[in-house]
């Protein structure tokens, strides 16, 4: 009996060791098979596209040939006909009958032109096109994208997932769509921004709900410490535009993004954030807000594709067909240039995976695949080389073309529409279109020297590294912005307003007073305040994690049980 038991244990252990050692091999083989089927699908789609191209060229040639023959015959017949019809001296064009088929093409009368035009389907510009035209002409216009959250058209505009079941069918569908989009892009190269959108909207492009974020007198104060980390911020982030937040280190850029995303912890927030003009909590839209923090959000033990697919399956609408989810993931892989490493493990500290730059792109991709309406990114290009950051910014630009509102902290000044300059203390020094930033600073006497990048120069001034010329001091810049926009100036900053007024009248410059008085506290008082702020921070965290807010995003994501199933079935397509 004992011998049998021991034998059974040994057999089971051997089996387990065998399974453990073979599991890697099984997974590798499975990955290889998947890669093969993907390559086959891509090849098939490419061949179809090439065949279609060849067919189009042949059709054009045939058409030209037919046109030549048609013209020749037309000339012959029209000579005979005109000789016959000359005596009748038909001044105006007679009605064309069946026998006139071979008549040479004649200039159509205006009536005919009109009727011909009326036969062409009348392509009225869509709402999105109209809006983008107006946005191009007036970037400050309050007219946003017209599609609102809760719009019933959103579902209608979704691409039909078709009844695709097998992996190769789904992949062929995804690659086919991507090839189509590439061809469209190639065609649209010379079009303007609104031209591209109008082409896109006339096709079968899905439109996302839009989020416009306006903030008024937004102030964040550290609980217990009464220190402002963000102060009196006014402005608006528009859908379809890329906004960059810039400023010196410690100015409060990350804090600003966290406040926008509803993730600011340990702070008391005053002022208001309006979503699409309504005073609603940003938490109600969490399902359609993407947030890429500075730290990694990727799973090191999954491959690039698995990470993206897992995020898409858990965060896209549960009603969306699987092929459409695959298409979205493929599109993101393509636009972030991750094709070459799609099957590579992301990696952990112990196990080396993809490079740091690729990892950063996967982080961004994790949020792009959930098709956000508001995408917030904290330094997405940090650590990337120039080519990779250009690629990433281009991918984000394409997202903006779909109406996504993008706001990110950037250090490299390029490829964005609006800019927010934060000065130390979380105060705004400028917020508006990038085109007008130089004009604004020149208006207050700050000119950019030759061969210096304007945003770099302004950040150096805000940091206090470069002294601005004239009577301006870097501490005055936020108050100058408040006065420029007639925003109320906080009482403890009024002396800056007085300095500015005095400087403009007498050209004198008083030494700046300290912005905030430092209150000396006893050890016991400091200890008590620290304790209080720690408890409040914990309470904030628990509230944010466990308290449910009303969802207004109009997206029904899979429940926890289903997400867990996706997690367990990570190798499933
Ligand atoms: N919850 C918090 N608790 C304590 N201090 C905080 C908190 N949030 C923000 N701060 C402080 O606010 C200031 C601004 O921080 P933030 O991370 O927003 O700066 P930043 O502009 O993003 O800087 P960097 O460019 O260096 O990342 C810092 O001094 C930071 O210590």
Task: Give an overview in words.
The two termini are 47 Å apart. The protein has a domain at 213-468: Rossmann fold (3-Layer(aba) Sandwich), CATH 3.40.50.300. It is an alpha/beta fold and 573 residues long. It is built from 17 helices and 9 strands. The strands form 2 sheets. The protein has a 6-stranded mixed beta sheet with strand order 5-6-7-3-8-9, sandwiched between helices. α3 (127-137) packs antiparallel against α6 (193-202), α5 (167-187) crosses α9 and α8 (304-315) packs parallel to α10. Residues 73-123, 139-147, 150-159 and 508-519 have low confidence and may be disordered. The longest helix is centred in the first third of the chain and has 84 residues, at 2-85. Adenosine-5'-triphosphate binds at residues 222, 229, 247, 249-255, 265-267. Keywords: ATP-binding, Membrane, Nucleotide-binding, Transmembrane, Transmembrane helix, Transport. This is ABC transporter domain-containing protein. It is a multi-pass membrane protein. Residues 213-449 form the ABC transporter domain. GO terms for molecular function: ABC-type transporter activity; ATP binding; ATP hydrolysis activity.
Gap between N and C termini: 47 Å
> What is the residue-mean pLDDT, rounded to a whole number?
75
- Overall outline: globular
Structure annotation, total helices:
17
The CATH architecture of the domain at 213-468 comes to 3-Layer(aba) Sandwich
Number of strands: 9
């Amino acid at each position: 009996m004992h011998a049998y038991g021991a034998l059974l244990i040994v057999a089971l252990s051997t089996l387990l060791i065998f399974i453990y050692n073979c599991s890697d091999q099984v997974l590798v083989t499975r990955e290889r098979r998947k890669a093969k089927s993907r390559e086959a699908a891509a090849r098939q789609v490419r061949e179809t596209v090439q065949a279609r191209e060849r067919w189009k060229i042949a059709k054009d040639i045939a058409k030209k040939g037919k046109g030549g023959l048609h013209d020749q015959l037309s000339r012959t017949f029209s000579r005979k006909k005109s000789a016959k019809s000359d005596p009748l001296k038909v001044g105006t064009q007679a009605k064309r009958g069946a026998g006139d088929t071979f008549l040479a093409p004649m200039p159509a009368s205006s009536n005919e032109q009109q009727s011909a035009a009326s036969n062409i389907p009348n392509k009225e510009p869509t709402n999105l096109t109209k809006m983008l035209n107006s946005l191009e002409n007036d970037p400050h216009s309050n007219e946003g994208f017209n599609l609102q959250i809760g719009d019933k058209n959103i579902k209608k505009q979704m691409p039909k997932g078709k009844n695709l079941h097998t992996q190769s069918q789904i992949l062929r569908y995804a690659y086919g769509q991507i090839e189509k989009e590439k061809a469209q892009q190639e065609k649209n190269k010379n079009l303007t921004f609104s031209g591209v959108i109008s082409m896109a909207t006339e096709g079968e492009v899905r439109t996302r709900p839009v989020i416009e974020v306006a903030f008024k007198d937004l102030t964040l104060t550290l609980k217990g410490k009464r220190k402002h980390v963000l102060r009196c911020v006014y402005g608006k982030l528009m859908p379809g535009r890329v906004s960059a937040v810039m400023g010196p280190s410690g100015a409060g850029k990350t804090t600003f993004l966290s406040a926008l995303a509803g993730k600011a912890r340990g702070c008391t927030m005053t002022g208001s954030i309006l979503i699409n003009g309504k005073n609603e909590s940003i938490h109600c839209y969490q399902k359609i807000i993407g947030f890429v923090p500075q730290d990694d959000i990727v799973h090191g033990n999954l491959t690039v594709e698995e990470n993206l697919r897992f995020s898409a399956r858990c965060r896209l609408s549960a009603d969306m067909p699987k092929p459409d989810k695959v298409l979205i993931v493929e599109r993101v892989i393509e636009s972030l240039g991750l094709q070459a490493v799609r099957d590579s493990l992301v990696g952990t500290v112990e196990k080396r995976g993809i490079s740091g730059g690729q990892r950063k792109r996967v982080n961004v991709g994790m949020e792009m695949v959930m098709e956000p309406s508001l995408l917030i990114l904290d330094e997405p290009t940090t650590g990337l080389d120039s080519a990779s950051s250009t690629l990433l910014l281009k991918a984000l630009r394409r997202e903006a073309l779909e109406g996504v509102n993008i706001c990110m902290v950037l250090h490299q000044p390029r490829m964005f529409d609006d800019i927010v300059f934060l000065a130390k203390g979380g105060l705004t020094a400028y917020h508006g279109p990038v085109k007008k930033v130089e004009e604004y600073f020149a208006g207050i006497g700050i000119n950019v020297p030759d061969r210096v990048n304007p945003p770099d120069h302004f950040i150096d001034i805000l940091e206090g590294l470069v002294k601005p010329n004239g009577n301006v001091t870097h501490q005055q810049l936020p108050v100058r912005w408040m006065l420029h926009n007639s925003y109320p100036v906080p009482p403890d900053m009024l002396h800056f307003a007085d300095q500015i007024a005095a400087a403009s009248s007498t050209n004198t410059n008083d030494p700046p007073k300290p912005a905030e008085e430092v209150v000396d506290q006893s050890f016991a008082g400091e200890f008590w305040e620290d304790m209080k702020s720690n408890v409040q921070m914990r309470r904030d965290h628990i509230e944010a994690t466990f308290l449910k807010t009303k969802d207004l995003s109009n997206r029904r994501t899979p429940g926890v049980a289903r997400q867990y199933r996706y997690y367990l079935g990570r190798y499933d397509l």
